[in-house]
Amino acid sequence: MHPDLQKQLFTEINGYIDENSTRLAEREMSHLASTYYDPAYLAKEHALIRTQPLIVGHASRLRAPNDFLQHDDSGVPILVVRQEDGSLKAFLNVCHHRGARVCTADTGNTKHFTCPYHGWVYRSNGSLLAAPKPGFPNVHPADRGLFEIPVEERHGLVWVILTPGAKLDVKAHLGPLDDELSAYAMGGMELERDTVRREPLNWKFPLDGFLEVYHIPKLHPTSIAPWIHGKYSPFDVIGRHSRLLGVRKSFEKVRAQPFEETEFLKHVAVNYQIFPNTIAVWQGDHFELWTSYPGATPGTCVVRIQSIVSKEMMADSFKKRWDRNWDILLSTVAAEDWTISQDIQKSLPFVQDGRVLFGRNEPGLQHFHQVLDQALNEQGAP
Q1: Long-range contacts at 37-40 (CB < 8 A, ≥ 24 apart)
Q2: Residue 216 contacts residue 249 (beta carbons within 8 Å)
């Protein structure tokens, strides 16, 4: 985050504390509860997800030529490989013969991928090297390579679009957020850990939890409420994306002092909502990435959680710190936010008038669901 923006937010937070206020939307917003449990709405969400730039990993997993990562959180099997010239290529991880996955490892390094079913061999550039004979006299390797999909590396993140032949322009997708993310220099960081969880709740719930701080005092009284306020939060729309700050109670130490660039980001958590399905949280000295995908039913999802830290903080001396951070992260979000979200998932069909309510003090929720609805309406039927 650039210093001038930090200073602006520093002043804004001080104003909210002085007034005992927070960022407010113009009005309350009611929203159809069925968007969390309607199979027809879910089908449109799946179709939309396949047309959007998606973050599938951090580039530190793909440093050397022939490094690869496999990703199927969306239900679409993807294989991303670093090429000899340093570029990236992404493919559907599907053999041209009978549809088996040619790569089953999550990550690694290889020049060739061999289908475990019948032994067809593909080079790391996606071309078919060999189809074992006999039986395929008319198969021409040039026509049987892996299906390629768009891929781009930007801000140290690997982005794809799940549809072959689609256009991918991450800078255009991010709009003004592109310049803001560049200030964090994520490309020089490392992936510290990475886990995937399958949860019995709608895919939007893991994102919703980062889009308002109103719930913190009540839902998290002993976990994070002692450290983070449930108000005083600046919120800004950035195109389809947004930024919400969680204000740490340690902010009191610096609020009466002149603004200092080196101090501000230590006392806030910066939640970036990156459309359509990622929350990137700056935690003062590292990033957490939460990427949520709709499951096969409205009440299921796949969530990938990644921790991205500086190279210096990858040293063994920091391991206990990251272990402790991970425990706090999971015990707060998974044990508290997602537990109540599972209960809400069951009760939503019975809410009054079939609608939930987003308050004026929840502008992040209002913006995300408005943008999602608009994108789905523009897309039309799946």
Answers
A1: 37/202, 37/298, 37/299, 37/345, 37/348, 37/349, 38/298, 39/297, 39/298
A2: no
Among 63-67, 80-84, 161-165, where is mean pLDDT lowest?
Answer: 161-165
Amino acid letter, residue 367: H
Quick one: which of 37, 23, 33 has its CA closest to 359?
23
> Across the chain, what does the average pLDDT equal?
94
Residue 252 C-beta-side C-alpha neighbours within 13 Å: 5
Query: What percent helix, strand, coil does the chain show, rounded to 5?
Result: 35, 25, 40
Fold of 54-167: Rieske Iron-sulfur Protein (2.102.10)
Domain topology for 3-51+175-379: Naphthalene 1,2-dioxygenase Alpha Subunit; Chain A, domain 1 (3.90.380)
Query: At how many degrees (to 10) do helices 363-379 and 39-49 cross?
Result: 80
- pLDDT score of 382 more than 60: no
Overall pTM > 0.90: yes
Mean pLDDT, to the nearest integer, of 92-96? 94
